[in-house]
Design goal:
eleven-stranded antiparallel beta sheet; mainly beta
Length: 222
């Protein structure tokens, strides 16, 4: 019998849509389907951003991954925080599936081969106490996109003999960090030109069962 596939949707939004403005970007993902209605565990995401959309990281301190592993979000320098968000995961417990809420923090990470990275740190407490760090590498992309985020998502263990946790939803806002520096307050630069149909976004997803999904959306420009 063929396994049930996991479906995914992408919902991007810009806090300010005025051309050339400095703003914050929210990327929201939702997952559904899968075996017995539970999405397969996520292993990677590639997010494509519109041409001309800028990520301004000058003056933003980087946080060493070792600090996140040893001390969590509190171990990173205050100036490295780029954004926040939340996630809802599903945890298997025998015949039951239990929801787990997780807070998400986004930090600037050390560059890899000259390319910027973001560290997406998730912290859950109930029913499991679990920390995870996903690494997003920023790289150029082809038109109509300008750059892409390639995000590696580590397995999230749950209970002994049970599958890893699955995402039901994930939402992250980069920018608008309270008390942050000017760069942190709006590190996203809106493109200066408005393409026909709005700013294009796209995402592709890979799951632990080797299945995949894709989604696309656009944001209106002003």
């Amino acid at each position: 019998m063929a396994s049930a596939s996991t479906a995914a949707t992408l919902h991007p939004s810009l806090r300010a849509q005025r051309l050339g403005a400095r703003t914050a970007l929210t990327l929201a993902f939702h997952f559904s389907g899968g075996e017995e209605g539970v999405p397969a565990p996520l292993s990677a995401i590639v997010v494509r951003l519109p041409g001309g959309l800028g990520l301004e990281l000058r003056g933003v301190t980087s946080c060493a991954p070792s600090r996140l592993r040893s001390s969590g979000a509190a171990g990173c320098p205050r100036g490295s925080l780029l954004g926040r968000g939340h996630a809802l995961l599903q945890v298997h417990a025998g015949s039951l599936t239990v929801p787990e809420q997780s807070t998400v923090s986004v930090f600037r990470g050390p560059s890899r081969a000259g390319r910027p990275t973001l560290e997406i740190f998730g912290h859950g407490e109930t029913p499991l106490y679990q920390n995870t760090t996903s690494i997003a590498v920023v790289a150029p992309d082809s038109a109509p996109y300008g750059s892409k985020l390639t995000i590696s998502v580590p397995p999230i263990p749950t209970l002994v003999f049970e599958p890893n946790a699955s995402f039901s939803s994930l939402s992250v806002t980069i920018g608008a960090v309270a008390g942050g520096s000017a760069a942190q307050a709006g590190p996203i630069l809106v493109p200066r030109r408005c393409p026909l149909g709005g700013f294009p976004f796209a995402a592709s997803f890979t799951f632990a069962d080797q299945s995949s999904a894709s989604a696309a959306a656009s944001v209106a420009c002003q």
